Structures are given as structure tokens and as C-alpha cells.
């Protein structure tokens, strides 16, 4: 068991459920990609962010399933009564429950425990938000008041800034890319390209700019210091420097 501090000052208890995960038959449920989710915001001008309070914990486990989550610490044996972090099937189970709850409602999109209600006008947005909140209340879901935001003209969501003007990268993400050191091995290069490709849908000609670096992934070497040309990295970082919202 590991105790991890949260940003808000609370703690998160993490249990190693790796052996249990080997014997779990995961539920097949489609998880929407970030790219697909962002396409849902066409014509949206008003936004509200709704965050489910301790998302997984709002789902009760069947008593028989609960027994399989038993863990031991200095104080004895304990088992989870609610869906814990660390179970491999948890994301699909949670996503299915929350989507079933909001099924049929317009103007609501999201991934996992955070989702956005949006509208082209304040009236449309407010009507949709009321329907979403009413449905959540009727189904027994609770929300995290500190993380919820209502009637905003601009929001940060899934690493992007979304507003009536469009979608662009969150500046904190692009700053992290610009501050990265030049990769010196395959692992570091993959990490760099992974961060860059996160915004591939909204960066013009990114594939052409990054192509020389992708070619280097095939190189049979553990040291890329000689192969990587700084000008390619500078070109990539320059792209994000001009995409600040």
C-alpha cells in the first residue's frame, strides 16, 4: 500500500492489485479519444466543467468482488467496498456507468470523471446544464465543488484551451515542450515526440517538421547526440511558441 498526497492536500491510498488484474476479465467498452472528444465543441461558446467527486469511489462493489480486493497493512486486513484505483477494468466500468447516466442528453462530453456541458448560447447552455445536473442528482452521483466551473467563456480541458474562438494548446503543455533538453537516446526521443504529437491535429505541417526525428527512431544506436540536429528541435519548439492562446 502506498499513500500519495494530492494537490489539494488530501491523500490517495494506492494498493498493488497487479496479481488480481491478471485474473480479471475486462469489460469491453469504447473509450473516446481526445481528438474525437474535441470535435464535439463546434459552435460552442459557453462552457461548464463538471467533476465527479472521487469518481471510482462512487461505484459500489458486489460483496463477492469486494473480497478479492483484500490487502494487508500494519493495522490488519482491509477490503474495498467501492471501486478502487488500480483495478485494470475500472476505467471501462466507470465510463460505462457515467455514460449510461447521461445517455440521450445533448451538449455534454468528457473523459472519465471530468466532463463539459457546452452551448452556443447562454440559454442553450443553461438548459443543458440543468438537465445534466438533474440526471446526476437523480442517479445519486456527487460532484467535487472545488473543481466544477460554471458558465465560462474559456476552459482548460484535456490539455487544450477551448473557447468560442476555437481550440489551441494549453500554454503549460507547450512550455514543458520548449523547456525539454535535447534527447540523447531513443527513450528520450520517444518521450519528446509523444508530447509533440499530442497536438498533431492543430499544428500545421507537424508531420513534415517532425519527420527527421521519427526517422531517427529506427537508428540502431543508444546515443543520438551525433544524429539529432538541433535545428529540427528548434523548428518543433518554434511551432508551439507561436500557438499560445
TrEMBL record:
<feature type="domain" description="Reverse transcriptase">
    <location>
        <begin position="1"/>
        <end position="162"/>
    </location>
</feature>
<dbReference type="GO" id="GO:0071897">
    <property type="term" value="P:DNA biosynthetic process"/>
</dbReference>
<dbReference type="InterPro" id="IPR043502">
    <property type="entry name" value="DNA/RNA_pol_sf"/>
</dbReference>
<dbReference type="InterPro" id="IPR050951">
    <property type="entry name" value="Retrovirus_Pol_polyprotein"/>
</dbReference>
<dbReference type="Pfam" id="PF00078">
    <property type="entry name" value="RVT_1"/>
</dbReference>
<protein>
    <submittedName>
        <fullName>Transposon Ty3-I Gag-Pol polyprotein</fullName>
    </submittedName>
</protein>
<dbReference type="InterPro" id="IPR000477">
    <property type="entry name" value="RT_dom"/>
</dbReference>
<dbReference type="InterPro" id="IPR043128">
    <property type="entry name" value="Rev_trsase/Diguanyl_cyclase"/>
</dbReference>
Amino acid at each position: 500500500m502506498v499513500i500519495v498526497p494530492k494537490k489539494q492536500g488530501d491523500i490517495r491510498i494506492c494498493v498493488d492489485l497487479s496479481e488480481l488484474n491478471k485474473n480479471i476479465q475486462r469489460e469491453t467498452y469504447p473509450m473516446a479519444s481526445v481528438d474525437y472528444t474535441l470535435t464535439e465543441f463546434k459552435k460552442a461558446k459557453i462552457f461548464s466543467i463538471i467533476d465527479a467527486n472521487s469518481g471510482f469511489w462512487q461505484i459500489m462493489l458486489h460483496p463477492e468482488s469486494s473480497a478479492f480486493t483484500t490487502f494487508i497493512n500494519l493495522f490488519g486486513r482491509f477490503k474495498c467496498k467501492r471501486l478502487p484505483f488500480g483495478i485494470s477494468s475500472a476505467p471501462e466500468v466507470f465510463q460505462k456507468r457515467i455514460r449510461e447516466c447521461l445517455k440521450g442528453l445533448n451538449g455534454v462530453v468528457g473523459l472519465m470523471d471530468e466532463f463539459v456541458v457546452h452551448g452556443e448560447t447562454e440559454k442553450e447552455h443553461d438548459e443543458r446544464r440543468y438537465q445534466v445536473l438533474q440526471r446526476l442528482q437523480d442517479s445519486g452521483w456527487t460532484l467535487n465543488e472545488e473543481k466544477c466551473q460554471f458558465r465560462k467563456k474559456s476552459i482548460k480541458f484535456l490539455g487544450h484551451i477551448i473557447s468560442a474562438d476555437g481550440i489551441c494548446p494549453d500554454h503549460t503543455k507547450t512550455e514543458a515542450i520548449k523547456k525539454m533538453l535535447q534527447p540523447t537516446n531513443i527513450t528520450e526521443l520517444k518521450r519528446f515526440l509523444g508530447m509533440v504529437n499530442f497536438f498533431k491535429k492543430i499544428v500545421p505541417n507537424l508531420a513534415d517538421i517532425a519527420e527527421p526525428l521519427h526517422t531517427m527512431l529506427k537508428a540502431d544506436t543508444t546515443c543520438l547526440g551525433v544524429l539529432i540536429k538541433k535545428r529540427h528541435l528548434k523548428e518543433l519548439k518554434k511551432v508551439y511558441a507561436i500557438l499560445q492562446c
